[in-house]
Fold:
Amino acid sequence: MKYSTNVSSSRRKSRKAHFTAHSEARRTLMSANLSKELQARHGVRSMPIRKDDEVTITRGMYKTREGKVTACFRKKFVVHVERITREKANGATVQVGIPASSLVITKLKMDKDRKAALERKNRNKGKSEGDVTMSNVDLV
Structure:
């Protein structure tokens, strides 16, 4: 069911928008979920991935492997993780590109911009124990 009349639900248009997206739009497209521990701490479900984040691979041949992000290729929609390599036919080793959606961020590289983004995205920032919300009001 279509919820918004302003957004097309056409497969063709969605794919075109995805593959012709500019670099800043690709940054948000290349987001990864945070680990359950980080989600609980920051109140944020996912963040755009960046170099020096520590990640766990959740899907594919390299599932359950962990490492630090060494490079993010927005043009190719892939991320390189340290120690995730394969050997080519000529014997050379190359980094394997992993899609950002197949990763879970286990440790964030914090700087002031990242901290501000976490503050902005935090879902439970306004809620403290004394606040009255619909969830903690007894209906009589």
User: Anything to note?
Assistant: The chain has four helices and seven strands. The CA atoms of residues 77 and 129 lie 42 Å apart. The two ends are 36 Å apart (CA to CA).
